[in-house]
Design brief:
This protein is 35% helix and 30% strand. By secondary structure, it is an alpha+beta fold. The protein has a single domain, classed as RelE-like (YaeB-like fold). It has a five-stranded mixed sheet with strand order 1-5-4-3-2. A hairpin with a 3-residue loop joins strand 2 (49-51) and strand 3. Helix 1 packs antiparallel against helix 2 (20-32).
Length: 97
């Protein structure tokens, strides 16, 4: 998958260095993936949650952090929409971010 934009991950781990290994591992795995449907995502990430507007929520570092992405399966693109702590995640609307 093509991931837009890794910069969001880098910016986040500058402030939360303990998240860096987990975010790098997530990025590497998703980059190698060839997801065509949400079932493919679920096969790789059983705990991924799906919400409206093709948004997918990933738990990072034991659910301490969250990534919200939008996926365009037809073009193989994952758009990072949010990276944050679980507390920050609780204050967003995942369907519009």
């Amino acid at each position: 998958m093509r991931i837009i934009a890794k910069k969001a991950l880098r910016d986040f781990w500058k402030d939360y260095p303990d998240a860096q290994p987990s975010l790098e591992a997530w990025h590497a795995k998703v980059k190698k993936a060839k997801w065509e449907t949400s079932n493919n995502v679920k096969a790789d990430y059983r705990n991924a949650s799906f919400v409206a507007n093709n948004r997918v929520i990933f738990n990072i570092k034991g659910n301490k952090y969250r990534i919200v992405v939008a996926i365009n399966y037809d073009f193989g693109i994952v758009y990072i929409r949010f990276v944050g702590s679980h507390k920050e995640y609780d204050n967003i609307d995942t369907t519009t971010i």
